[in-house]
Structure formats: structure tokens, C-alpha cells
Amino acid sequence: MNIDRGFLNVMILSWGFMLVFAAFQTMGNIEKTVLSSIKTDDENFTGEAYTSLAIIYAVFSICNWLAPSYISVTGPRVAILTGACCYVLFIASFFWPNAGLLYSMSGVVGIGAAFIWTGHGQYLTENSDVDTMSRNAGLFWAIFQSSQFAGNLLVFFVFDTDKIDATQRRTVFSVLTGLSLIGALVLVFLRRPPQKSSLGEAEGVSSADKELQLPEPVREKPLVAAWQALVDALKLFLTPRMLILSLTFIYTGLELTFYSGVYSNSIGFTKAMGDQRKRLLGLSGIFIGVGEVVGGAVFGILASKVCRNCGGSPVVLTGLVVHLFAFISIFLNLPNNASLGETSDTDHVMSSPILAMAGSLALGFGDACYNTQIYSLLGVLFAKESAPAFALFKFCQSVAAAVSFSYSTSAGLHIQLLVLLVTIILGTIAFCYVERTVKKSKNESQPEIDPSLVEPTSGED
């Protein structure tokens, strides 16, 4: 029985990420609430969740410039495993509540994030071709985002009181640390990708030639390779298409901050949600995960069949509409100061857990729309430069996330929604424009090909 080696690698990558981020995303989802409960028990503890998250993404953004150099020396598999170990250390550090340790481990996981995500982008591209890139990106995203279920389901059942105590915290920390460790062990089984070209149609290579065997590149000395990778990343960042796409990347970073660290905690801080509002932290994360998985499945795995000829723009426009619904519902449902701490205020309508969960579902679904199409576009458009391309994506995203977490310490919910509204419009226009120019240039590069002359025989001229 022949198993597609590239597909098997994508599956191992997806399930390893799912386990690691089942722990990390749940921790990010509840960190503000958990640290507030620690402060209640220990007046000497001064750790701040939004500061921790801002450090993570600030370090992440800086290290994204160095990640391609690291990967050029170690390869993507080592980079992915290194990053996973950093996540394990970060989550385990919560057993010892200390502001210095919290912020130090936040820096460590920021470094690990740059390695794991840039390595993931290159490894996913190496195990895909122009026909399977969209499928693999969607498959990865759907499995990866199912991570929202396990950890948040645990939170839903454990945080069953109005006040979170030390026993509840230890239970959650133990399970999350175990999940991240198992995920790191799964990633040990990643294997070399199949030897085939990653060139795609966007570079003028026909579908028949997409698996053309290429000679191995000449191996440079580690320091030379590292320096060249940094230079290539800088050059790529200054290209017109990448600069325009950076607007889309920035929006994904801002909304990542909002759904992963601000929104669910805002629900838990709103007293009008009832005595069981802390359990809604976990339930919100679950609904975000449902939206992510459904979006990844519909617009990633099935994209090649559902909208093969129309590209990613309709999917991104769908994400725009869904996120606009989410922003409006959140504006109506939650008070402005809900993101800052416990509040008895109510907003334009009586706070409703059902409407809050609808907002969570919409946030997850819309996020999947944007991310699956960004992965697919980058994998095809920058197939030969996948490591720096994905590093630059994560650089822009993490800079935006760091800035967003910084102003989240003082900005109300409504100001944050206004920022998201402006950037989603700019980001959507940028993505659609770049995709349209790519299609136009591809069509102009092959204007007079007679279909009757294309023979599905050997892939040779």
C-alpha cells in the first residue's frame, strides 16, 4: 500500500501542532482571568497577562527576521521541534507564579514561535505542489484549530465557580503542560519531504511539470547560508506584492489578539453574563474552534472543488462579512470596559451568552477564511522563497499583535473594534488586489497556448 509521503508529513505536522497549541491557545484564552485570580491569592504577584502576551509577539516579530537564517542551517524539522519545546517550557512556568519568570518565558516562547511557524510554512510548502497546496493548507488549519476543543472543554468543566482557586489552576496547568509535551513528541516523527519541485503555475511552470525533478542546490557554509537567508528576506519584504500584502497580515495579527486574548476574557469579566460566566471562557474558545475548523474545511480542504476557478478573493470577502457581523454583535453585547476587568455595566442590549457565542463562532470562521487563503497564496506565489515569505507574514502579524496587546491594557473594547474595522477593510482590499494582479500576469505570460498542443505524456518540451 503506497502512502503519499507528503500527505503523511502534513498529517503529522497538523496533529503535532494541534496538541501543542491546544495547550498554548487555551492558556492565552484564559491568561488574563487566571493571573487575576493569582493576584487575589497573592498580593505580591504583579504579573500582567496583556504584558506577557505583548512580550511574546514583540520577540516573535524580531525573531522572524532571524528564523530563515536558523532554518537555512538546521532545516525546517529541527526548527519546528525547537519551537515546540519552547511552548512546553512556557506553559510549565505557570506552576511557579512569578512576574520575572512569566516575562522571561514569554520571551522564550516568542523565539520558539518564530522557529515553529516559519519552519511550518517551509515544511508545508515542501510537502505540497500547486494542486495540493490549498488542500494541505486547509487540512492543516482545520486539524490545527481543533486544538481549541480539548483545552477549552477542560476549562469549561474545571472553572465551575465564580472564583478560581489554586487547585483548579493546578489541574488546568497540569493537563495543558502534558498536552504540549505530547505534541512535541509527535513532531519528532516528521520526515524529509518527497523530492519534487515546489514550483507552481504562478511562476510560469505548467501543471504537467509541477513534479519535475530538480538537482539539489549547492550547500553553502552555515554562516554564509544564514546571512544570505536574511538578505533574501529583506529583499522580499521590499517587493511591491509583499508590501501590499502586509496590510492583510497586519489585520490577521490584530484580530488574532482580539479573539485569542481579549474577547473571551471580556465575556468572563461581564457580570451580566451570570454566575457561570467563568465557564463561558472555555465555551467561547470552543465556539471559536468550531468556526476555525468549519472554515478550514469548507474554504481550505474543499476549496479546489468548490471555487477552483475563482481563487481566494471570494473566500476572503466571505470572511469580511462574517467578521463585520462579529464586530457589530460584540459592540451591542459587551460593555466598553469589559476587556479591562470585572464590570457590572451593560451595553446597548442586555448581555446575552448566546449572542456572545455567536460572536465567537463568527470570529473563528472569519479567521479561517483569511488564514487559509494567505497560506495558499504564499505557498504558490513564493514557492521558491517559502521560508522568508512565511517569516515575513508572521513578522507583520506578530508586530500587529504586540502593538494590540500593548494598547489592550488601557483601551476599551469599542476602540479595539474600531481599529479592527478600519484594518479589515484595508487588508481585504490588499489581498484581492494582489491576487488579481497575480492572475493577470499569469494569463498574460501564456496568452497564445493552443490546448490541442498540450500532451499529457512526459512533461518534457
UniProtKB/TrEMBL annotation:
Region of interest (Disordered), ranges: 442-461
Gene field: LOC106747883
PANTHER family on file: ET TRANSLATION PRODUCT-RELATED (PTHR23294), UNC93-LIKE PROTEIN MFSD11 (PTHR23294:SF0)
InterPro entries: Ion_channel_UNC-93 (IPR010291), MFS_trans_sf (IPR036259), UNC-93-like_regulator (IPR051617)
Organism: Dinoponera quadriceps
Superkingdom of this protein's organism: Eukaryota
Compartment(s): Membrane
Record family assignment: Belongs to the unc-93 family.
Pfam families xref list: UNC-93
The protein's name in its UniProt record: UNC93-like protein MFSD11
SUPFAM superfamilies the UniProt entry points to: MFS general substrate transporter
UniProt entry keywords in alphabetical sequence: Glycoprotein, Membrane, Transmembrane, Transmembrane helix
An example Gene Ontology CC term for this record: membrane
Transmembrane segments: 7-27, 47-66, 78-96, 139-159, 171-190, 242-260, 280-303, 315-334, 354-382, 413-434
Membrane topology: Multi-pass membrane protein
